[in-house]
Write a structure and sequence with these properties.
With about 900 residues, this protein is mainly alpha-helical. The chain is about 65% helix and about 5% strand. The radius of gyration is 45 Å and the shape is elongated.
Length: about 900
């Protein structure tokens, strides 16, 4: 046998598991084949034979050594064996004592010395060699003490050397200084070095034996190779758990134990590096691991490579989650906590994302350090931007435990309480109340205390909220919290107007004025100011522009959808319904995937309110019912009252009075009636009573609504047209004078820029004027309602106009307009109005003409296609048609394309004359 030759040897262990060992030697005869082992052949020829079996731990070095020993013993060779141990590495002659036990070599006596031990060793081997070949087998030579190695070296290469075979297993030690005497022994020119390597797919396939089908064995072999990387120990553990029981390699316990055995055999450095990689939970980063383990980068890189070689790691990290979890589970608790704390700080210093830092902190527990709190707050902000409210709450709750002082702890608790309102509204109330006492004791910062007051207002805890405001006001001069005071005042004026007088009595003198927010004011202040000025009719066009500016601010989509909702409410009350609908659709996409219950309910309520005011009754009911699913049954809040109000008004318009009554049977808290949502509720309840022919109950609700609106300086018909409702009741009771007085008063107070509201009031004004004046007034009302995009109120105005023509004896016009009104009411799903209009729609017309466009070539057209075709025949542009029938231009174009195809024409000029006649009739 010669150095630097190559061969492959396959051994079979006592349990029948094949082990493939790749070696740097190559001869045709395998090591365990017939004939004498080449090592022993050299000894028999009178020369020494030295072999070193190299490779990482658990890769089969000891198994190969054992096979050599067995082969030598069977051939009659005397075998002397010893195993190195880290605990005995510093004990002189520890290994030699194991080798020559009972052979007359004194390694522990008081008179021992290097020369004497060497002579005794030489004599013992010579005596044994006289009887036949001698094999010295040493496992884990890296742990053999220097004195034993020196004696073996003298024995092998001394002047009076004796023929014998020496086989060592050796693994280079991580982070250990080189040992010259060991290297000198290993790297001699005639030493054969055998490098063990991993199992291959074919080896593992062979190890499965005949117990599985070919397909099952293939799947199992590939799976084992993927999990164990060809490591014999890991592979055997997987097969041990898999083959007897199931056909899926789920050998969790045996495999986890094998992983730990592998690391322990590799030594403490490998264990330390593996633990660091497991804790960091990412692809190995040599620099980061080096800092965490306090090892040099060279040692760290070498250790990582060694872990890859033994199959514990792949290039991107642990081969399997079970491997990682096994490593983490074995780390002592105190050490794991310390390791995670240091990992968190390292990641923080490296500028890693906040969530990476927090994953370490949360696994270890609270760490009251100054640098921790900003990291947690930053992560919470990022989570909110992604719509992950629950994650933000988790981070802030952890921040509470990490706060190094009481002030910041309470401030963070206030933020947590505010966020709980978005995901668990019912449990949010007690959290806010729990912070009242600390706030009154001055333990909560002033800004945080005012935010706490806002939360208490939302939960209708009005007295508690004002108590907190009073405490803050007593400590503030009105200037240092100027922005916060303005925001709170506008919030109360717009949402809780019944409390405004009480609030202003508490505010510092400098904070009582409703000053305009500066240009650089935060979006939250600009949004709530816009809303308060719209509902109090104290602003102009710039107010609406302010709301749109807030919506266009990119920070809204990244932070608070509540701010955006407030701005959209401003557009709704400014009768800019199309713009409000567009923003609702746009922000709904931002809301997609967000986990905020309150946000879903809030935007559902907004979309329902917009749909209701556009006359889309079916959509309003659908949106309200969907939003109500996000409101807990036991919640009695502003949003639940607003949703109930829209359901009542929608069901009433749809003629479903039982459903409206059921909604009204649900309890609300009396405090709701002190809020803007309470006005919607009173007005909707009045509409229901009105439809059910309970005029006095309806009048009581309308007047209660009006009294509040006047008292709160919120007397705008865009919020609730209470005078219109009350006037309609007075007319039904025959009190025309009372009705006229209310309507005239409303006309005198009607501000500019509210087209829908103006149209509603004009329609009611026509009802209290002489019949001859009504057509012109109703014509103006229709124009205003079309500009305000309210189809239902347009249908009501058309119904009134039809009735007016009927009273004037103009039956043809009455019938035509009634038909228009019915079509519009039908498209709104306003069944109550449709039933009222049905007699007018069919009166005086022969049965065959009830649907003049339903015969001949027009029968194939749908109602929508007929309407578009008739308006196109009358000369209206696509945009004008879209405005008239409340659809998009694209929809008009699609309808016309289908009309042309069905009628086999190519342009609107070819539309039949009957369309022009019908268009003229309905215009």
């Amino acid at each position: 046998m010669r150095a630097r030759e190559f061969r492959t040897v396959r051994n079979q262990d006592p349990e029948g598991v094949l082990v493939l060992l790749e070696q740097y030697t190559h001869i045709d005869e395998p090591l365990d084949g017939p004939g004498l082992d080449p090592l022993l052949d050299e000894v028999a020829a009178g020369t020494n034979g030295f072999t070193v079996i190299c490779g990482p731990a658990t890769m089969g070095k000891s198994a190969l050594l054992q096979k050599i020993v067995e082969r030598a013993t069977a051939a009659g060779t005397t075998v002397l064996g010893a195993t190195g141990s880290p605990d005995e590495q510093d004990l002189p002659y520890a290994a030699l004592g194991k080798l020559f036990t009972g052979l007359g070599v004194d390694t522990a006596g008081p008179a021992r010395g290097p020369l004497r031990v060497a002579r005794e060793t030489h004599r013992a081997v010579a005596d044994l060699n006289a009887a036949g070949p001698v094999l010295i087998a040493i496992d884990d030579a890296q742990y053999i003490d220097d004195e034993s190695l020196r004696c073996l070296q003298q024995l092998a290469y001394g002047v009076q050397s004796i023929p014998f075979a020496l086989v060592l297993t050796w693994e280079p030690q991580l982070a250990a200084p080189p040992r010259r005497i060991l290297e000198d022994l290993i790297y001699r020119p005639r030493v054969q070095r055998i490098q063990v390597g991993p199992l291959t797919y074919r080896d593992i396939l062979r190890m499965t034996g005949s117990r599985l089908s070919a397909a099952e064995a293939d799947t199992l072999a590939r799976r084992c190779l993927d999990l164990g990387g060809g490591n014999p120990l890991l592979t055997c553990a997987l097969l041990e758990e898999t083959l007897p029981m199931s056909r899926e390699p789920s050998g969790v316990d045996a495999f986890r134990q094998a992983v730990l055995v592998c690391l322990h055999r590799m030594g403490p450095v490998a264990t330390r590096v593996a633990r660091a990689i497991a804790i960091l939970d990412r692809a190995p980063d040599t620099g980061l691991i080096s800092r965490l383990t306090e090892l040099g980068t060279g040692v760290t890189a070498g250790t990582v490579q060694r872990l890859v070689e033994v199959g514990v790691l792949a290039e991107g990290g642990f081969r399997h989650p079970e491997t990682q979890s096994a490593v983490i589970a074995e780390i002592p608790a105190d050490e794991a906590i310390d390791l995670r704390y240091r990992a968190a700080q390292l990641l923080y210093e490296e500028g890693e994302p906040s969530r990476s830092v927090i994953s370490q902190l949360s696994a270890a527990g609270p760490l009251p350090r100054e640098w921790v709190l900003p990291v947690l707050c930053s992560a919470a902000q990022d989570a909110l931007a992604d719509g992950e409210i629950s994650a933000a709450i988790q981070y802030l709750n952890f921040a509470v435990d990490c706060c190094p002082d009481e002030d910041r702890r309470y401030a963070t608790k206030a933020r947590v309480a505010a966020l709980y309102r978005l995901v668990e509204p019912v449990s949010s109330g007690p959290r806010h109340l729990a912070l009242k006492a600390p706030a009154l004791a001055g333990k909560v910062g002033q800004r945080e205390a005012l935010k706490l007051a806002e939360g208490l207002l939302w939960h209708l805890q009005f007295d508690d909220a004002l108590d907190v405001v009073a405490e803050v006001a007593a400590r503030d001069d009105g200037f240092s919290l100027g922005t916060e005071w303005r925001q709170l005042r506008h919030l109360v004026a717009a949402g809780y107007p019944g409390l405004l007088t009480r609030l202003e009595a508490l505010l510092p003198e400098a904070a009582r004025s409703a000053a305009t927010a500066p240009v650089i004011a935060p979006p939250s202040l600009r949004a709530v100011q816009s809303l308060s000025t719209v509902v109090t009719q104290s602003g102009g066009e710039h107010t609406v522009a302010l709301a749109e500016q807030v919506l266009q601010d990119s920070t809204v989509a990244q932070g608070s959808l509540e701010v955006a909702a407030t701005a959209i409410f401003s557009l709704v009350y400014a009768d800019m319904l199309d713009t409000a609908a567009d923003w609702c659709d746009r922000l709904q996409s931002e809301l997609h995937g967000a986990d905020g219950i309150a946000w879903n309910a809030l935007f559902g309520a907004l979309r329902a309110l917009v749909a209701l005011r556009r006359g889309q009754i079916d959509i309003a009911l659908e949106q309200s019912q969907q939003a109500l699913k996000f409101v807990p049954d036991n919640e009695r809040s502003i949003r639940s009252a607003l949703l109930l109000a829209m359901l009542v008004e929608g069901h009433t318009a749809a003629g479903n009075h039982e459903a409206a009554a059921e909604c009204l049977s649900r309890p609300i808290r009396q405090q709701v009636l002190e809020t803007r949502a309470g006005l919607h509720y009173l007005f909707a309840r009045g509409r229901h009573h009105q439809a059910m022919d309970r005029p006095h109950a309806a009048l009581a609700d309308f007047m209660a609504c009006g009294e509040r609106m006047i008292q709160w300086n919120m007397d705008s018909p865009s919020v609730a047209p209470w005078r219109v409702g009350a006037a309609e009741v007075w007319l039904a009771l025959g009190k025309r004078h009372h009705a006229a007085q209310l309507v005239e008063e409303q006309m005198s107070r009607l501000g500019a820029g509210l087209p829908r509201s103006r149209g509603i009031v004009l329609r009611c004004l026509a009802a209290v004027r002489d019949v001859g004046e009504r057509p012109g007034i109703l014509g103006d009302a229709l124009k205003a309602l079309q500009a305000g995009h309210d189809r239902l109120e347009s249908a009501r105005a058309l119904a009134d106009l039809s009735e007016t023509f009927q009273s004037l004896g103009n039956k043809a016009d009455a019938r035509t307009v009634a038909r228009r009104a019915r079509r519009l009411a039908d498209s709104c799903h306003a069944e109550g109005l449709v039933q009222v209009l049905t007699p007018y729609h069919s009166a005086g017309r022969p049965e065959k003409h009830k649907r003049p466009m339903g015969e001949g070539q027009f029968a194939a057209l749908s109602d929508s296609e007929r309407r578009v075709a008739m308006l196109a025949a009358a000369g209206h542009s696509n945009r004008e048609i879209a405005t008239k029938i409340f659809v998009t231009v694209s929809t008009v174009e699609q309808h016309l394309t289908r009309v042309y195809r069905k009628l086999n024409i190519t342009s609107r000029e070819q539309l039949p004359v009957e369309f022009r006649m019908e268009a003229a009739e309905i215009s």
